[in-house]
Amino acid sequence: MICTGCSCLCDDIAIRDGKILNACRKGVKLFNVKRAIPMVNSKPSSFEEAIDRAKRIVSTANKLVVFGLDTIPCEAQQKAIELAEAKNAAIDDCSSFCLGDFVELILKGELPTATLEEVRDNAYVIVYWGSNPYQSLPRHMSRFTYYPRSGKRQRGYEEDRYLVVVDVRLSETAKLAKKGGKFIMGNDADVIDSFLKALNGRAGKYPEVAAIIKEMQKADFNVIFGGLGLKYGLRGDYSRFIEMVEKLNEFTRVVFIPAGFHANMRGFNELMYRKTGVVNAYDFSSNERLTFSEAVKKADAALIIGSNPAKSLPSWIAKKLAQIDTIIVDPSQSLTSKIAKVVIPTAISGIDQGGTMVRSDGVSVELKPIREGVTDAEVLSLLMEVV
Amino acid sequence: MLDFSRFIRVEAKVIVARDILNENKGVALVSKEFAGKFGIKEGQTVKLTRNGRTVKLVAKPSEFAEGVDVVIPNDFFASQLVDFDSFKQFTASVELER
């Protein structure tokens, strides 16, 4: 089966004699979530009562905001976009605060990219920039990047991979890079500047980047994985980073892949891009961009699907969601389900609901559930009846 | 060692990071340099305050906070201190709980 614990979408998970095999700690966590039950106004209800109450909220809302969506299959994401459009609502996912900008740059062709299988088979220099896969994507390095012996890289990490980490602090991955590669601890803009200067034969603040470029030139395939540290380090201005990648590609091949995120963030980004030309944060009432953080301020109702913003976003978001008519559609009990007016439990993607998801590198993956439950698409279809 | 450090309130560079082993445990990883400078010991409760909001976390000196002063896991405690313009990195005042 496919694990939907993160955007690696590992396809080798098995259950034998009640034991979960091959899953990392994030994957195992997915199997052990405390399941939500239908609730209306903090009291247990029947599923039908919860749906009826949610329908009333959706039909009477003047300013609805739809948010979350990154852990549900594309088929359900498509229905959520249709619902938002029909209701003239605002819609957004976690990518506004995560790596949506990088996905948009890739979809617009501003950064060259590749699949994780190409990385596994070919990549020599592997750069994790503002990312610590040890914590965020536990099997990324063993399945796709540093450790595999595959394709042109049969000697694995001992000889055939060169690990580079750029980060503001020593992470677990950075500690590994210190041993046999390079770790640059510093400000992202300064590191980019050092790369650009080194490519022009000059020394910048971090002269060690010259050695990294030299290593990149030894191979015909290198990769940069950009994480949240890079996104927030660059503060929305990616022009120098794009220039750096372009310049590196004059000397050797360097591709870029967002380091990773929720299981199907990229699926939502691609569906939105096809529909609106942008990857997230869209208000169908004005046809302009609007992030969840702005939309929720004016909203009288919120439809949260497959997400827990009360835990992961600034605390004022939870207070606002508690004040308005919030519906949560999600398999697990969470802080958001505690403050929501209506809780609608659904199946866990990959375990008890199928569908399609898109990996961080853009590859589509078909889920292979082992059970059947109430899908997010079914719930959204029921809510569409009143729009 | 006399506990003078418990009267100190200092500004610290804090980053929010994924830390699946410490999520929801109320832990703050403190760089060894920062801990040494201000006499913070493992297991002590530190108060992090930013924009009038305070969280109490258990200090854990760690090499994985080297480069900054404090690392806190991306969880409920972090959401009390962050804003959208300082989602991953911010400055907060740190003091030992008296």
List the defining traits of the structure above.
heterodimer, A: 387 residues, alpha/beta, Rossmann fold, Dimethylsulfoxide Reductase, domain 2, 2 domains, nine-stranded mixed sheet, five-stranded parallel sheet, 19 helices, 18 strands, B: 98 residues, mainly beta, Barwin-like endoglucanases, six-stranded mixed beta barrel, 41% strand
Summarize the structure.
The complex is a heterodimer of chains A (387) and B (98). Chain A has 387 residues and is an alpha/beta fold. Chain A contains 19 helices and 18 strands.
Distance between the termini of chain A: 35 Å
Q: How far do the termini of chain B sit from each other?
A: 16 Å
Count of helices of chain A?
Answer: 19
Specify the overall morphology of chain B. globular
Number of helical segments with 4 or more residues of chain B: 2
Reading side by side through the largest sheet of chain B, how are the strands ordered? 1-5-2-4-3-6
Topology, number of strands of chain A:
18
The CATH C-level class name of chain B: Mainly Beta
Strand content of chain A: 15-25%
Domains of chain A, number: 2
Which architecture of the largest domain in chain A would the CATH scheme give at its second level?
Answer: 3-Layer(aba) Sandwich
The coarse silhouette of chain A is globular
What's the pLDDT, averaged over the residues of chain B?
Answer: 89
Write structural notes for this entry.
The complex is a heterodimer of chains A (387) and B (98). In chain A, the strands form 4 sheets. Chain A has a 9-stranded mixed sheet, with helices on both faces. In chain A, 57% of the residues are buried. Chain A is built from 19 helices and 18 strands. Chain A folds into 2 domains: 34-97 and 262-384, 3-Layer(aba) Sandwich (Rossmann fold); 100-258, Dimethylsulfoxide Reductase, domain 2, CATH 3.40.228.10. Chain A has 387 residues and is α/β, with parallel strands linked by helices. The model of chain A has no long low-confidence stretch (mean pLDDT 97). In chain A, helix 2 (47-60) crosses helix 19 and helix 4 crosses helix 14. Chain B has 98 residues and is mostly beta strands. Chain B has one domain (4-96): Beta Barrel (Barwin-like endoglucanases), CATH 2.40.40. In chain B, 13% of the residues lie in helices and 41% in strands. Chain A binds chain B through residues 25-26, 29, 97, 132, 135-136, 138, 167-172, 175, 185, 228-229, 232, 291, 293, 310-315, 318, 335, and chain B through 15, 17-21, 53, 63-68, 71, 74-76, 79-80, 82-84, 87-89.
